[in-house]
Structure formats: C-alpha cells, structure tokens
Write a structure and sequence with these properties.
By secondary structure, the protein is mainly alpha-helical. Helix content is 61%, strand content 0%. The N terminus is likely disordered.
Length: 127
C-alpha cells in the first residue's frame, strides 16, 4: 500500500481524525468530501496557498496545527485518509441519529379535562 516514506505519522493521523470529527460535527461532510475529491490534482497548490496565507490567518486566529496541516494537505495519501475519515465518521453519526430517532418515545399523558377541545378559559370566536 504505502511505502515507509509515504506512511502517515500517528500525530498526523490524530490531526486528520480531529479535523474529520469537526467537519462531521458541523455537518459539512458532503461539501468537504466533494471539495477534497475534486481538489486532489491541486493539492500541492492548496498546501502552498495555505503556507502563503499563514501569517494573516495566524494574526487573526490561533491554529497551532496550521503549518503542519498546510504541509500535510500537499500529500495525496493524506487527502485520501482525510476523505475516508470524514466518510467513516459521517456514517457513524448517521447511524447514531437513526438510533436516537428510532427509540420509542414515551407518549405524554393527556391534559386534565380530556384535552382535545377548546380551553375552558377561552371564549369561542364569534362568527
């Protein structure tokens, strides 16, 4: 699969997993995967662009992993790993949402007085 020089370091994998988790948490998995898939040929340019904008981004935001991510994004195997991590986490989130929605909810007891009709404190509209 990947040679020793192409292997992704454990710290880099952890960064990829954190990024994938945040993308899924924001429910941006579909646009992120589409963007990653379509930008594979431009990955080197994307990494260089991130490096170019680093001083401006760091001046506004504190991203301790920004430089490492900019270097990683140039590697196609990293793009593939990030895409797979996003897809896996998105599927896990979908399954969790389905399980939450499939749980039987306990019905609320009817309101005193039988409910269903007009409130005894309200007048019927004239008409």
């Amino acid at each position: 699969m990947a040679s020793g020089s192409d292997a992704i370091a454990p710290a880099d994998r952890e960064l990829i997993e954190r990024l994938a988790g945040r993308v899924v948490e924001l429910r941006l998995d579909v646009p992120a995967v589409v963007t990653l898939e379509t930008s594979k040929p431009l990955s080197l340019l994307a990494g260089q662009t991130l490096t170019f904008f680093e001083p401006m981004v760091q001046a506004m935001f504190n991203f301790p992993d920004y430089r490492r991510f900019a270097a990683l994004i140039e590697r196609r195997e990293v793009l593939e790993a990030l895409t797979e991590a996003i897809e896996r986490r998105a599927e896990e989130a979908r399954i969790a949402r389905r399980q939450r929605s499939a749980r039987p909810s306990t019905p609320e007891p009817p309101a005193p007085g039988g409910g269903g009709g007009a409130s005894p404190n309200r007048r019927a509209p004239r008409g």
